[in-house]
Amino acid sequence: MGEQAALTESIARENGALDFNWSTRPEDRTKLLTARDNTLYAGTGLRAGAKAVITDVCVPISRLAECLIETKKDIDASGLIAPIVGPVDV
């Protein structure tokens, strides 16, 4: 488990991830999910009057980097303010 998390962190950071946390303990995982949920409020504060649209995606870990890169390209092309935040289960 630790090896996969380390590899995932390495890939995420190579692609511009600002932060990476992981845990196998249920109580820590709950805290991480709560933090992820709270980013909604931070995201809506990026632009006055903004409304949030939340989407989820499920991809094999082997395609995660590709998915994030393509999603970032789509966001850039759209002109939207769209932070990318989420849990990754490995």
Which features does this protein show?
single chain, 90 residues, mainly alpha, 52% helix, 0% strand, globular
Description:
This protein has 90 residues and is mainly alpha-helical. The protein has one domain (2-78). It is 52% helix and 0% strand. The protein has 3 helices and no strands. It has helices at residues 2-14, 26-44, 64-78.
Quick summary:
The chain is mainly alpha-helical.
SSE topology:
Layout: H1 2-14, H2 26-44, H3 64-78
Quaternary form: single chain
- Describe the sheet with the most strands: none
| Overall SS class | mainly alpha
N-to-C CA distance? 7 Å
Gyration radius (Cα, Å) is 14 Å
Number of domains: 1
What is the approximate shape? globular
Given the structure, what is the number of helices? 3
Uncertain ranges: none
User: How many E strands?
Assistant: 0
Mean pLDDT: 84
Q: What is the chain-wise order of helices and strands? A: HHH
**What is the helix content?**
40-55%
